[in-house]
Amino acid sequence: MHKSLKIWSVFLIVSMPLFLWAGRADYRVIPLPQSMQADTTKVFTLQSGMGIAYDADNAEIARTAQLLCQWVELQTGISLQLTPSAKKAAIRLIVSVFSAEKKGKKTASLTDQQLEAYTLRVDKNGVTINARQAVGIFRGAQTLRKSLPTTGPVELPFVTIADEPRFSYRR
């Protein structure tokens, strides 16, 4: 009896760091994003009740927000809320025109890959997924989903990921 108690005690002590690490996101996903700059010394903690802000007028982005909400809950047990207010949201899904396009500068026509490009940034304010089109938001949400651990609360190390599909075709 005492021997088995000692064995379990040793097992718990040795495995404790693994349990503590289990709640941290891992951005090494497949396929690996083209650019990733991480600061693992700082984290944003995702908790139940936090919001996902999105453009409710865009049906594709609304669907991605709903899917992301479901993925997070299924994978981590964390229940997020859909919200129109970006100020109160932990996750923001933003379709925007990039700086050269905003200034009215003539830009070369974009490839399909560039149209699907996204950036995913985690900082003290939460998670921001930014893209030119809704499909880029979906791809960024997929990267976030694949990064999540299987238990909550979830610590998201600060990171900036920039990615776009490597190939113009899908099978």
Provide an overview of this structure.
It is a single chain. This protein is an alpha/beta fold and 171 residues long. It is 35% helix and 27% strand. It contains five helices and seven strands; from the N terminus they run H-E-E-H-E-E-H-H-E-E-H-E. Strands 1-7-5-6-4-2-3 form a seven-stranded mixed β-sheet, with helices on one face. Strand 5 and strand 6 form a beta hairpin. Helix 2 (59-76) runs parallel beside helix 5. The longest helix is centred in the first third of the chain and has 20 residues, at 2-21. The radius of gyration is 19 Å and the shape is globular. It starts with a helix and ends in an 8-residue tail after the last strand.
Layout: helices, strands, pairs:
Layout: H1 2-21, E1 35-46, E2 51-53, H2 59-76, E3 81-83, E4 89-95, H3 99-102, H4 112-115, E5 118-123, E6 126-131, H5 134-147, E7 154-163
Parallel strand pairs: 2-3, 2-4, 4-6
Antiparallel strand pairs: 1-7, 5-6, 5-7
Helix pairs in contact: 2-5
Percent strand equals 25-35%
Shape: globular
**Strands ordered across the widest β-sheet:** 1-7-5-6-4-2-3
Structural class: alpha/beta
What is the straight-line distance between the termini? 58 Å
Q: Helix content range of the residues, please?
A: 25-40%
Please count the helical segments.
5
Sketch the major β-sheet: 7 strands, mixed
Task: Report the average pLDDT across residues.
Answer: 82
Number of strands: 7
The radius of gyration computed from the alpha-carbon positions, rounded to a whole number of angstroms, is 19 Å
Helix and strand element order:
HEEHEEHHEEHE
